[in-house]
Recover the amino acids of this structure.
């Protein structure tokens, strides 16, 4: 596999900016190639795949620390452990959805009370939130 990508090309193909590549390097998510005496660092083609993986994992709610762990599991070919982490993340997402659904219902109720109150009356939203 050839090392022919500059940091700018890697960033563009990975869908991030150059500073993101540098940040990933500082965090240990991406190796920084050695710099030749003359010229620019060159990244291997598989770096694009790794950057895309990191961004997609973040979009699914994984933290960078969790992503480091996932990458380590991939190196160990520990698919069952990876599945367990993904299943746990799914449980958290489902809990967040349930919590957000409750919040939506409560806020809808508050807005409805406000819509039903008469002009000049104390704001029912403020009073309902303040009461026990």
């Amino acid at each position: 596999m050839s090392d022919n990508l500059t940091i700018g090309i890697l960033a563009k193909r990975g869908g991030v900016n150059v500073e993101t590549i540098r940040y990933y390097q500082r965090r240990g998510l991406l190796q920084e190639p050695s710099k030749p005496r003359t010229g620019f660092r060159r990244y291997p083609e598989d770096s694009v795949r790794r950057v895309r993986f990191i961004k997609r994992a973040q979009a699914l709610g994984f933290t960078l620390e969790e992503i480091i762990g996932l990458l380590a599991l991939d190196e160990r070919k520990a698919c069952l452990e990876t599945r367990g982490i993904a299943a746990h993340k799914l449980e958290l997402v489902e809990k967040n959805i349930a919590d957000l659904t409750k919040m939506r219902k409560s806020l809808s109720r508050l807005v409805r009370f406000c819509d039903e109150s008469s002009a000049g009356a104390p704001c029912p939203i403020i009073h309902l939130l303040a009461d026990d």
Notes: The longest helix spans residues 79-116. Helices lie at 7-14, 18-27, 46-59, 64-75, 79-116, 124-130. The chain has six helices and two strands. The first strand starts at residue 3 and ends at 5.
